[in-house]
Amino acid sequence: MTPHELVAILDKHERWLGNRNGGVRANLAMIDLQGMHLAGCTLQSAKLSGAILTACDMTKANLSYADLFAAHLTKAEMSGCNFFRADMRGAHMRGARLKGAILREADLRGGALLDGRSSGTSVLKSDLGGANFDDALLSRANLSGADMSEVSMSGADCQGAIMTGVNLSGATLKNSNLAKADLKGVNLSGANLSGAILRDCNLAGAILAGAILKNADLLGAKLDGVDLSGADCTGANIARGAENFSLRIQRSLEGHYTWINSNGASGQRADLQSEDLAHIDLSGVNLSGANLKGIKLVGANVSDALLVMSDLSLADLRECNLADATLDGTNFRGSDLSGARLDGAELGSVDIKGPSGKPTGRMWPANLTDTKLIGASLKRTNLRGANLTGADLSYADLTDAILIDANLKGAILEGAILDGAAMPVRSDDDDD
């Protein structure tokens, strides 16, 4: 097709859109338009199925409601394009640039294409690999099954998008908004989701090996069957409700609740030894007296919880939020609390009571011997009388913490912030 012919078709199409005389809807299906200049053109509702638009300049073109089924848009320049509700099933956009494009409610699923050389059909996956979707608007778009490997989607708005089974391996989604998106079974291995908003999205069965989720917000996200052990979740807001864990764990938590509220008359003390409860939300929960030895609570939210006289020895509590928790008399021996947040937490002693219920005068201090508290935040934490023998508090923030009568023998305080901290009185034994 010559440029002159194309201009004539575009002119008639605009007339058609405006219901003017001589107007004809543009039908460019299966036409080879490689490298053509379509920047700023109005192709709303145009027929472009199977069209070859490779390397075309379509900057800020209006393609809303257009039929782009199985169109070839490889390496096309489509920044600022409007694809609102466009049919882009089976489209090929590998290496295309769609920075700031509008793809709200667009259909980018795979599609079945009739094969004229046979009696069958062939299913085409939408190929968007390596495309640039930075700052694009993809809210409520349907991208199910698309190949979006190594795409750049920094700052993209994908709220409510349907992205089940999408291949996003190696993709860059920094600061993107994926709130309430359906990402079931998506492949995000090696993807960068730093600062991304994933609130209330469905990530069930997603692959996150090697993914970067630094400072990402996953509050309320569905994470059934998701393994986060290989992902970098530093600073991420991840809260997994108990309903996301096995029925056995749920029953153990429910049984402990009954045990606590009946003073041991019914229910059963929770035994969650060596269980993996990473990123669970246990804020405000009462797990006092529970056996949590060797438990994995990496990135968990245990703020405002009650864990008095519990066993948390040899536990993995890295990046765990224990702010304002009551942890008096709890055993943390040998646990890793690196990067944990214990601001305002109570880690003091418990006054042991006798069979009659009266205090015996015997105090049971919190045990933090040989714990790792590297880089932990202990602002205003009450550690009065706690046993911190051999604890590593390197670079921990102990601003305004209370350590009166605490045992710091052999503790490492290199780089620790002690501004306003109430320290124990040194004795001659401390020099041994």
From TrEMBL:
- Annotated InterPro entries: 5peptide_repeat (IPR001646), Pentapeptide-BTB/POZ_domain (IPR051082)
Cross-referenced Gene3D superfamilies, in alphabetical order?
E3 ubiquitin-protein ligase SopA
Taken from the record, one Pfam family name reads Pentapeptide
Protein name as annotated = Pentapeptide repeat-containing protein
Specify the species. Answer: Skermanella stibiiresistens SB22
